[in-house]
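Annotated sample (chain length 110).
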Amino acid sequence: QRPADRLLVFCDEAAEVENPIQSLQQARASGQGIDVLIGPEGGFAEEERALLLRQPSILRLALGPRILRADTAAVAALALVQEAPWQADLERDCNQCNQRLPWGARLQTW
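Output written by the structure step:
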């Protein structure tokens, strides 16, 4: 089970397209880092989406007006996370705990 104090960036093709950097700034991650969730190429089922939206510390984020392939979406999502204003704090924290990715994100695909 995912720790409740980690921010979950849920990349959802059905989310309203807004400024992703601004959304990330408002969601500010805790020192525990973030998780990035990219869905399958066919998109999330409504049941999956409903389950995910009940999770604590979640940010539902659109990656733009186009539906991306899963591998392209992963690169786009991680690039956005790296540009978040609090990224430097996460990088420092994750260097202390030796996370695999330099900005504290863990990539999980379905």
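Annotation: The longest strand covers residues 7-11.
Annotation: Confidence is low (pLDDT under 50) at residues 96-104.
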